[in-house]
Amino acid sequence: MKRIFVVLVTAMGMFTVNASADALKNSLTNMMNKKDTTAGMVDLSRLDVNARPQQPKTRSSKAVVATVNGTKIIKKDADAYINKRTNGEVKDFDFLPKKQRIRLLQEMSISQLAADMAAKELTDQEKTAISTRVWMQKQASKNPVTDAQVREVYDNLKKRAVESNSTHPIPEFDKIKDNMKMQMAEKSIVGTLMKDVNITVIDANMIAGSINGIFISIDDANNALNAVTKGKATWASVPSADKERVLKMIAPGKLVEAAAKKDLSAKEKNTALSNYWMQNKVMKTKVSDKELRSAYEKIKKASKKAKSKEIIPEFETLKNTLHMQIAKEKVLADLMKTAKIKLIK
Q: How many angstroms separate the Cα of 317 from the Cα of each of 5, 109, 287, 295?
C-alpha cells in the first residue's frame, strides 16, 4: 500500500486543477480578462456612421431596444457598443437604420449565443475545468511569477540533473519558461488554499469525507484513485490510516472548484465558456482545399483590382490563416441561425 501512495504523491506533483483540465489548458491559456474572441466577426464595414435617426427622439438609456432569444438588450449597452465600434462617431443606437441595428445586435449577441450553445453541448466536467482554469489564471495575475524566480528554479533543476548524471536533456529556458511560471503560480495558490484546511474522514452513507465542509462522495474518491493508480486502488482498499491522505490529494481540486464558483462573475464564466466553445468549433470545422483556393484567388483578384503594390504571399503561406477565417465564418453563420432578434420600437 505504501508503494501505491508513493505513486499518488508522485503523480500529483505540481498541482493540476483536475484530470480533465489538462486537455483544456492550451485552448484556455490567456482566456482570463481577455476580450471576447468572437467579437468583430460580423461585418460592420458598411455601417453608415452618417445615418439619420428613424425616430424623432432617442430613448432612455434604460429602455429595452431589442431581445435576442428572449434576452433583453438595454439601450445603454447598445449605445456603448456602437460608440466603441465606430470610435465615437456614432453614440446612439437609435440613430441607426433598422438593418444596421440588426447587424449590430448580431455582433453584440455572438458571445451570449456561443455561451448558450456551450451550456447545452459541454459536459459538466468541461464547464468545471474551464471555470477553474480561468480562476487560477486570474489569481496568478494578481501576484505574477517573475522571470528571475523561474530562472532560479530552472538553474537548480539543471544543476541537479548534472549532479545526478541524468541522461534526459532539459529544454531551453525560453521554451519552458511560461509553463514553469504557471506551475509555480499554481503551487503557490494551492498552498494558500490548503493552509489550515479542515479534512474529515466520514466513510459512511456513500460519503468518503469532507474538505472545509465540502462533502466528497466515495465515487469521487474512487475516481481520483483510479486516475492516479490506474485502477490499483479503491477507497475500500485503502487502509483507514491512509484515507485522510486520499482526501488531502483530492482537496486542491475541490477547493479551487469552490473558489471559482464563488469568485467568478456570471460574465466571466460566460466569456470563458463562449471562447472555449467557439475555439473548439472552429478547430473541428472542415474547410475544403477548393474553398481555400477560391478564397485565395479572390484575394489576388481584389489586390489586382486595387492596383496594390503589395506582394501577395504564396497559397501555402496563407493556407492556415485562410482555413481559420473560413472556419470562423462557417461557425458564425450556423450560430446566427439560432438567433431570434426582435427590435423593440
A: 51, 33, 16, 13
Residue 154 CA to residue 148 CA, distance in Å, equals 10
Place of cell 479503491: 234
Confidence of residue 58 (pLDDT cuts 50, 70, 90): confident
The Cα 219–Cα 237 span in angstroms is 13
Each residue's pLDDT tens digit, 95-154: 899 999 999 999 999 999 999 999 999 999 999 999 999 999 999 999 999 999 999 999
* Closest by CA position to 104, among listed 125, 70, 80: 80
Q: Which residue has the higher pLDDT, 30 or 255?
A: 255
Q: Quick check: 252 pLDDT over 50?
A: yes
Question: Per-residue DSSP letters for 138-164?
Answer: HHHHHSPPPHHHHHHHHHHHHHHHHHT
- In whole angstroms, what is the distance from residue 37 CA to residue 31 CA? 9
Q: For residue 178, give the nearest of 334, 287, 340, 29 by alpha carbon.
A: 29
Q: Please tell me the distance from the alpha carbon of residue 304 to that of residue 142, in angstroms, as a whole number.
A: 50
Position 207, amino acid = I
**How much is the pTM?**
0.74
Do β-strands 64-68 and 71-74 pair in parallel, antiparallel, or remain unpaired?
Answer: antiparallel
Handedness of CA 169, 173, 175, 179 (dihedral sign): positive
Per-residue model confidence (pLDDT) at position 166: 85
Q: How far apart are CA 69 and CA 61, in angstroms?
A: 21
Structure-block grid coordinates of residue 112? 451570449
Distance CA 216, CA 249 (A): 12
> How crowded is the C-beta side of 182, counted as CA atoms within 13 Å?
17
